[in-house]
From TrEMBL:
Pfam families: Glyoxalase_3 (PF13468). It comes from the Bacteria. It comes from Lentzea atacamensis. Residues 3-170 form the Glyoxalase-like domain. This is Glyoxalase-like protein. The lineage of its organism: Bacteria, Bacillati, Actinomycetota, Actinomycetes, Pseudonocardiales.
Amino acid sequence: MEIDHVVLAARTKADAEEVLSQAGLGIARGRVIPGLGLSNLVVPLGQGLLEIHYPNGEPPAPASPPLLDFDKEALAANPSAPLVPMAWLVLMQDERRLRELAAANDMSVLEVPAEGPGFPPYTLAGFGANFDRRWLPCLIHWPEGPPALSAAHRHEPIGITRIDVAGPADDIRRWCGGEPRGLNTVPGTAGPLRVEIGFVDGTALTLGPATGQ
């Protein structure tokens, strides 16, 4: 059971690009996310993705999910961190298993259309439940296979190797039907705190607030 991707908040596009450039990570694509007041950057990692949100100056549509507010709150609470993890998604290879877990845990299931070239449609379970229980991931299944994205990395990543999540481990395991690889739970209920990316040369990069913040 793998972590599919982690969503992080940035104050500006320039802040995100600076962090990624210093780490030697390239960007595959970016777009305006309709109705949310946010745009994104997508970074392929070999296995998994980083998706970075930043405000684009547009007002959110009425009754839209309050993701912009969540991002602002997290960044305000962590003023020294340029990127702050906001949400995480766990890959379900088997769509039937995703739907079984959705039914058992009373999750909503969304069928999301393709988001332009290289980003195929996906099935998402649990979106919205993590607004109140930030430690819970969404479950994602790619019916046509995961995004076939590439980027001009100067430092070649192998994927997400660890995520620190403040939340009850039993609740996460029940939600996911097991323990996702790389998950480290810590006391609290704040949700994802830090994500570690491993590289081919054996080094690692941690994004998020420093330990103890």
